[in-house]
Amino acid sequence: MKLLQLTIILITMAMMTSCNMDLETELEYESYEFSGIDENAGSWKPILISNGNDITIDEPTSISSAEYLSELSEVKSMISAMSSDQRKQVNLWTNNSVIRWNEVALGLIAKYNLIPGPNVDESYTLPNPANPEGPPVFPFAHPPYASRALAYLSVAQYDGMISAWHYKFMYDRPSPYMVDPEIPYAYVPNNLPSYPSEGAVLATVSRKILTAMFPLEAEYLLQLEKDHLESLLLAGENVPSDLDAGKKIGEEIASIALARASNDGMKYAQAPKAVSDSLRAAAFDRFGWQWENLESPVRPVGLTPLFGKVKMWSVPNVEDTRAPVPPTPGSEAFQKDVKILEDYADNVTHERRRIANFWQDGLGTYTPPGHWNDIAGEYFLKYKLNSIRTARAFAYMNMAIMDGGISCWDTKYYYYYPRPIQMIKGFETIAGTPNFPSYTSGHSVFSAAAAEVLTYLFPQEGSVFQKWAEEAAMSRVYGGIHWTFDATVGTTQGRDVAQYTIEVAKTDGADN
């Protein structure tokens, strides 16, 4: 399978950004002066490891040593012989490559967000991680898969940054451009110590996590890692021993993250038909209703029936966040909602269609979790966050998004609630019909969880984030995909789940 090229990703992301809402600032990818460097961030509490010094690296050599001076000479030679293509790579990665790697992840999610079609005999074959080339190819990067990929990437990056910061300010070795004034620095100076290289941590940990999530892209991701590492030398930011120490941290953090991923229950999320049927039967016994898949040919199983059983990041028990019982079909509350949806269907205004289309985030896109990562990146740049603050923000937001998705899917398959197209005679949607139960709305939960964490991080922007989350929720109602209570209750559910993540964030030491 042909691997993505970096230019394709950048073009894809540019197209996505061009469709973005009218934010207060345009997304810029140039180097910038950080609002602060967080000298004490090495003492922050990580997520996967206990402390920043859990991973050990060697003490660096002195900047007056023969070994270091040899490295310095090597860097000077590389810079003097830099090609135009190499200079483009230096400019590409900038001094906050957390956002760059997040961008790469969004491009991969969009590429693999393609639902497997039926076979000739109208049967379906599931993507198989043991045979990623398929057909069909692995993975199908649907919203639950995307939320998980982004969470593991972000959490691993954050823990790696804490470890890097711990040693940076312990050893306080200056960057090459600060040691030798003949070495030019490609970025805006921020006076961060160079050992270990935070860029090397990010390059290695990101390559390993994303390769596990998108195995067919291993060669492409390895090349990105190499390009990123080389750019750190050519920028005058690091010497090779800085990179070696950073790569060691990245390797070890990624291994810890992937060990958790291998046992988080995701491998069982796409359950067999017998399990799905048992969930359907249990819901019918409890409530007297059941969702029916209206696809043709019918898929035997809905999307990831057991995603609600996947290990959460911050919530002790998924049942604590399960939404309350939805209205009984035929009840007064239900009939009221039918009339609301029929009115929307009969009066599809330009604004409602715009909202439905803007938040659609369907097949071939970076999904609702990716949409909120795109939005978040703009604010991280607006407020000039350094790389560890950026990693922290992405980590907590994506933890909340994934936990929200798990809570939502637990609710979906517990209630197995039918969608409007199934219950309203002659009803049509303007945005397709997803292959899983209706209540609650995934868009609503993902969006509310993201908005809640972003509001915690940027309270001055909270009204903007909350407005967008509510708009994302209602977009699914305007599209005819969801009941209004799917959206309103889902928004509450996402906010409630995010509070667990925010409580963790409040105790990590970053706000002290």
Features:
Vanadium-containing Chloroperoxidase, domain 2; 512 residues; 56% helix; disordered N terminus; mainly alpha; Br/Cl_peroxidase_C; 2 domains; 18 helices
How would you explain this protein's 3D organization?
This is Phosphatase PAP2 family protein. Residues 394-502 form the Phosphatidic acid phosphatase type 2/haloperoxidase domain. Residues 1-21 form the signal peptide. With 512 residues, the chain is mostly helical. The protein is built from 18 helices and no strands. Residues 1-26 have low confidence and may be disordered.
Structure summarized in a few sentences:
InterPro entries: Br/Cl_peroxidase_C, PAP2/HPO, PAP2/HPO_sf, V-haloperoxidase. The protein is an all-alpha fold and 512 residues long.
Question: How is the secondary structure organized here?
Answer:
Blueprint: H1 6-18, H2 66-80, H3 84-93, H4 97-112, H5 143-171, H6 176-179, H7 198-213, H8 218-234, H9 240-262, H10 273-287, H11 332-346, H12 350-358, H13 367-382, H14 387-415, H15 420-423, H16 442-457, H17 462-478, H18 484-506
Helix pairs in contact: 1-4, 3-8, 4-5, 4-7, 4-13, 5-7, 5-9, 5-13, 5-14, 7-8, 7-9, 12-17, 13-14, 13-16, 14-16, 14-18, 16-17, 16-18, 17-18
User: What number of structural domains do the residues give?
Assistant: 2
Q: Label the CATH architecture of the largest domain.
A: Orthogonal Bundle
SSE succession: HHHHHHHHHHHHHHHHHH
Distance linking N and C termini: 49 Å
Query: With helices defined by DSSP (H or I, 4 residues minimum), what is the helix count?
Result: 18
Q: What percentage of the residues does DSSP assign to strands (E)?
A: under 5%
Number of E strands: 0
The name CATH uses for the topology of the largest domain is: Vanadium-containing Chloroperoxidase, domain 2
- The amount of helix comes to 55-70%
Largest sheet: none
What is the CATH level 1 assignment of the largest domain?
Answer: Mainly Alpha
Shape descriptor reads: elongated
How confident is the prediction overall: mean pLDDT? 93
Radius of gyration: 24 Å
Return the structural class: mainly alpha
The residue ranges in which pLDDT falls below 50 over 5 or more consecutive positions are 1-26
